[in-house]
Amino acid sequence: MNKMNRRRFLVSSSSAALAAGTFPVPALIAGSPNQTVRVAVLGNGNKGREHSGILNRLNAAGEPYKLAAISEVDSVRLEQAQKMFKPEKLYNDPRRVFDDSNIDAVVVATPNQWHCLTGIWAMQAGQHVYVEKPLCLTFWEGQQLFNASRKYKKCVQIGTQMRTDREAHAAVKKFLHEERALGKILSARINRYAVRRPIGLRAEPLKVQPEVNYNLWLGPAQDLPLY
């Protein structure tokens, strides 16, 4: 991870308590008590709301973070963002965030096709990046984000929270290696079980809702019917 000037972009397990969750969440740690890190959240869906709420709770607890802006291409969700989180600014176009010189870092919680491109634009604008998973849709995309991080000397943190949680690492180490609770492990198969509604196949494509700026929602994706 590159060394930042005055600020460090870290994943901190201490912020998980403020998030009322069981996994670590992104935290921006200021270089001194007098500095506040101003963060913009791109997207007001489930993950975007989670991050906006975390930033507000960190701020209320006296941590040096400020929810400076929320960007959302759905006008209904943008209005909800104002009521729920009261950021300093609202944008209906993510590109306006990159024009805002007061933004120090962005949280990318957009649809997946936007993750790499918005991350690169943010770094070009001098902003550090926390990007939700998946980082990229292709290996090439991921390479471009990595190259941008090196070129612009900005940090990128990927939202693989449990994989960067030191407490989780310690628990696994104790369970598998110190206690040897499973004995000698010869092979492992990994899966994740969670409640998720089936997506299914629709007979007709989804209709774009009038409150959505569909061109901005698509971004770099192809304009194809959504089933």
Number of helices: 8
Taking Cα atoms only, what radius of gyration do you get, to the nearest Å?
Answer: 19 Å
| General form | globular
How many strands in all?
Answer: 8
Summarize the helices and strands and which ones pair or pack.
Blueprint: E1 7-12, H1 14-18, E2 25-30, E3 37-42, H2 46-60, E4 65-71, H3 75-85, E5 89-91, H4 94-99, E6 105-108, H5 115-124, E7 128-131, H6 139-152, E8 156-158, H7 166-178, H8 214-218
Parallel strand pairs: 3-4, 3-6, 4-5, 6-7, 7-8
Antiparallel strand pairs: 1-2
Helix pairs in contact: 5-6
Structural notes for this entry:
The protein has eight helices and eight strands; from the N terminus they run βαββαβαβαβαβαβαα. It is an alpha/beta fold and 227 residues long. It has a domain at 7-164: NAD(P)-binding Rossmann-like Domain (Rossmann fold), CATH 3.40.50.720. The chain starts with 6 loop residues before the first strand and ends in a 9-residue tail after the last helix.
Give a quick rundown of the structure.
The protein is α/β, with parallel strands linked by helices and about 230 residues long. It has helices at about 15-20, 45-60, 75-85, 95-100, 115-125, 140-150, 165-180, 215-220, and strands at about 5-10, 25-30, 35-40, 65-70, 90, 105-110, 130, 155-160. It has a domain at about 5-165: Rossmann fold.
